[in-house]
Amino acid sequence: MDKIGLYLGCLIPTEQYAYEMALREVLPDLGIELVDVEGVACCGAPLRHINLSLTMYLSARNMAIFEKEGLDILAPCPYCHQALSEAKHVMENNPALKAKINSNLETEGLTYKGTIKHYHVLDLLHDVIGIDNIKEHVEEPLDANIAAHYGCHLIRPNDIPRPDDSENPQKLETLLKTIGAKSDYYKEKLDCCGAHIMVNESESALTKTGQKLQAVEEQGFDALTTLCPWGHRMFDAKQEDAAKVVGGSIDVPVLYYLQLLGIAMGKDQNTLGLTLNLSPTDKLSFIEEEI
Predict the structure, then answer these.
(1) Which helix (H) or strand (E) holds 122?
(2) Residue 235 CA to chain centroid, in angstroms?
(3) 11 and 233 in contact (C-beta within 8 Å)?
(4) Which domains does the chain have, with CATH numbers?
(5) What is the helix (H) or strand (E) element at residue 35, kind and residue range?
(6) Are 116 and 67 in contact (CB under 8 A)?
(7) Helix (H, G, I), strand (E, B) or coil at 70
């Protein structure tokens, strides 16, 4: 079994518990041992437009901790994954900044070298674990048409390494087909969920959320799947609020991809955090009546 360091960030362990539950339940069966590492902190992304140097430092510090343990990183939050990717990219091209950050890290006995890789769930599943391996673990294929939501930070900006193509990502659709589902194209696929303007412009944020959910519903999808705790929060927990803002009823089941994968693998649905989903997942035929 391959070991990888788990970097949950801030939102998953404080709110989006279902994502963590599904991660810990599904990935070991696919040959990935998740290792919890002590001492990590915020990735710095929320501070990016206030103090970019601090963001770089915080991301470098986290990576240095995993380097010290000799572990690559799984960052299931796209916001965190982007911050780590950008910090690595910037320091590879700015030795002076790297030296300055390492000078500060010395106080904790840390050094950032840039030697480890970091993954998101998307590329870990698609590129490392592999489609054939996943297929071998599917016991109950899902008969549903499921809309794919990538989220902004998972695929952009395209000038730093991202888990999939910025303009035409396809890995999530491939992963959905691997568990027996359909995933038709819809033109709103790359639209933002609105999460990161929720604090200052809640009505605009919920409008984005509601419009995308309406598009999914109107185009006949059975559900929407996410790979991001921010997007899941908006589409799942904020679905009712979004419906009020856009002036209509919305009734779309929203699940993390790892929850869908766990169901297809025949997992006990209680272990996948499905009781924590706030959208109407019970509409789906493959969701057990009593969880």
Answers:
(1) helix 121-123
(2) 14
(3) yes
(4) 2-119 (1.20.1050.140), 141-283 (3.40.50.11810)
(5) strand 32-36
(6) yes
(7) coil
Tokens of 289: 């009546």
Task: Locate 25 and state its tokens.
Answer: 């339940």
Whose tokens are 């908006």? That residue is 234
Find the mean pLDDT for residues 49-74: 95
- Structure pTM? 0.96
The conformation of residue 113, written as its DSSP 8-state character, comes to -
Q: Which residue has the tokens 């359909």?
A: 182
Q: Which residues pair with 33 in a beta bridge?
A: 3
Handedness of CA 161, 167, 171, 176 (dihedral sign): positive
C-alpha distances (whole Å) from 130 to each of 72, 210, 275 are 18, 34, 29
Q: Distance (Å, rounded) from C-alpha 251 to C-alpha 278?
A: 11
The upper half-sphere exposure of residue 136, i.e. CA atoms within 13 Å in the direction of its Cβ, equals 8
Question: In this prediction, what percent of the chain has a pLDDT beyond 90?
Answer: 93
DSSP state of 167: S
Which of 160, 154, 41, 43 minimizes the C-alpha distance to 92?
Answer: 160
β-sheet with 146-148: strand ranges across: 146-148, 223-226, 254-256
Higher-confidence residue of 269 and 158: namely 269
